[in-house]
Amino acid sequence: MEDLHRDASGLPADTRGRLAELNDTKRRARCGPSGRATEVQHAKGKLTARERIALLLDEGSFSEVEPLRRHRASGFGLEANKPYTDGVVTGWGTVYGRTVVVYAHDFRIFGGALGEAHAQKIHKIMDMAISVGAPLVSLNDGAGARIQEGVTALAGYGGIFQRNSRASGVIPQISVMLGPCAGGAAYSPALTDFVFMVRETSQMFITGPDVVKAVTGEDTSHDGLGGADVHAELSGVAHFAYDDEQTCLEEVRYLLSLLPQNNRETPPAVPADDPADRRCEALLDLVPADPGRSYDMRKVIEELVDDGQYMEVHERWATNVIVALARLDGRVVGLVANQPQSLAGVLDIEASEKAARFVQLCDAFDIPLLTLLDVPGFLPGVDQEHGGIIRHGAKLLYAYCNATVPRIQLILRKAYGGAYIVMDSRSVGADLSYAWPTNEIAVMGAEGAANVIFRRELAAADDPEAMRIRMVKEYKSELMHPYYAAERGLVDDVIDPADTRAVLIRALAMLRTKDAALPHRKHGNPPQ
Question: Which SUPFAM superfamilies does the entry link to (predicted)?
Answer without folding.
Answer: ClpP/crotonase
